[in-house]
Write a structure and sequence with these properties.
binds iron/sulfur cluster, alpha/beta, 276 residues, 3-stranded mixed sheet, globular, 13% strand
Length: 276
C-alpha cells in the first residue's frame, strides 16, 4: 500500500494529511511518516501492532453485529447476547473491553438496525485491506482503498453505506465521502447515500448525499492527496535523513496520546535518558 511508485488514497490517509477543522492544533505530519513511510521498521511495526482498548472494542463490536446477522435466530433468543459474547471469546479480553462490548451487544440486540434490510455487504472487520479500486481519469490515476462496514439497499433501491462507530469520537464526514466515491465505481447502477451509527451511544448521523459535481471535486482532491503523499514517500526513499523535513513534527500536549512518543525524538513526553 505504500509503494512510492503507485499513488493511493484512503480516508485514513486523508485524515493523516489534513485534520478536521477543530483539530488543527494537534495535527502532526510526522505521525503520517511513521504510519505510512516507516511502518516496516521493527520498532514502528511493534508499536502499530499494539491494538488499544478502543480499537479492540471497535473490532469486537463490528464482529458482534456480523455474528448476529450470521446467526439471526440469536436476535430473538433470550440468551442471544451471551451466545454472541461466547462466539467473540469476549472472556479473553480485559474487564473494560468486556463491559463495553457487552453493552454494545445488548444495544444491538434491543435495536437491530439491519434487521429486515437487504444487506449486500457486511464485513467482520478483520478482513485486512480491501481490494483497491483503480481510478484512471484523464488527468490522474490512483488506487482508492475504502473498507466499508456495511452496504444495504433501502426500500426505494437507494444504496446505503453504513459505518459503525464506537467511543465518543465525532463522525468525520470525509469518511462518508470516500465511501460515496468508492460506490460510484463498485455499485455504478445505484444512487448512494452514506451514514454513521454509533453502536455504543445508539446515535445515528444525518444521511450524507452529494451531487455528481461534488463527487468529481472530492475525487480530484483525493487524487491530489495521493500524488502529494507519493511524492513525500519518494523523497523519503531517496533521503531517509530528511524524515523530519518531509513529515514535519508538531509536538505538544497531544504527544501523550501518540503511539510513537517512545521513539519520536520530538516528543514532549518521551522518557529522557539520564546521562552517565
Ligand atoms: S510524539 Fe508528538 S511530535 Fe512525535 S510524531 Fe507523535 S505527535 Fe508528532
Amino acid at each position: 500500500m505504500s509503494t512510492p511508485d503507485s499513488p493511493f488514497a484512503s480516508y485514513h490517509l486523508w485524515s493523516l494529511v489534513a485534520p478536521v477543522a477543530e483539530q488543527q492544533r494537534w495535527h502532526c505530519q510526522m505521525r503520517r511518516g511513521f504510519i505510512k513511510a516507516r511502518q516496516h521498521e521493527p520498532q514502528v511495526k511493534a508499536l502499530l501492532a499494539k491494538a488499544t482498548a478502543s480499537q479492540r472494542i471497535g473490532l469486537l463490536a463490528q464482529k458482534g453485529v456480523y455474528e448476529f446477522h450470521h446467526h439471526r435466530h440469536l436476535l430473538k433468543q433470550s440468551d442471544g447476547v451471551e451466545k454472541i459474547a461466547q462466539i467473540l471469546k469476549l472472556s479473553n479480553s480485559s474487564d473494560e473491553v468486556q463491559q463495553r462490548v457487552l453493552q454494545i451487544l445488548k444495544n444491538y440486540y434491543n435495536n437491530p438496525l439491519l434487521l429486515g434490510k437487504r444487506i449486500i455487504l457486511l464485513t467482520r472487520g478483520d478482513e485486512g485491506f480491501p481490494k483497491p479500486i483503480l481510478i484512471d481519469h484523464e488527468h490522474y490515476y490512483f488506487r482508492l482503498y475504502a473498507a466499508m462496514d456495511c452496504v444495504f439497499t433501502e426500500s426505494d433501491s437507494t444504496l446505503h453505506i453504513l459505518d459503525f462507530k464506537t467511543g465518543k469520537s465525532a463522525f468525520d464526514r470525509r469518511q462518508a465521502l470516500v465511501y460515496l466515491i468508492a460506490a460510484r465505481y463498485l455499485y455504478p447502477a445505484y444512487q448512494a447515500i452514506a451514514s454513521f451509527y454509533n453502536l455504543e451511544l445508539c446515535k445515528k448521523s444525518e444521511l450524507i448525499r452529494v451531487t455528481k459535481t461534488e463527487l468529481d471535486s472530492i475525487e480530484f482532491e483525493l487524487a491530489n492527496i495521493a500524488r502529494k503523499h507519493q511524492q513525500d514517500l519518494q523523497k523519503y526513499q531517496q533521503t531517509n535523513s530528511d524524515f523530519s523535513e518531509i513529515f514535519p513534527p508538531n509536538p505538544g500536549y497531544h504527544c501523550r496520546f501518540c503511539p510513537f512518543n517512545s521513539i519520536c525524538e520530538f516528543s514532549v513526553v518521551r522518557p529522557r535518558l539520564t546521562p552517565i
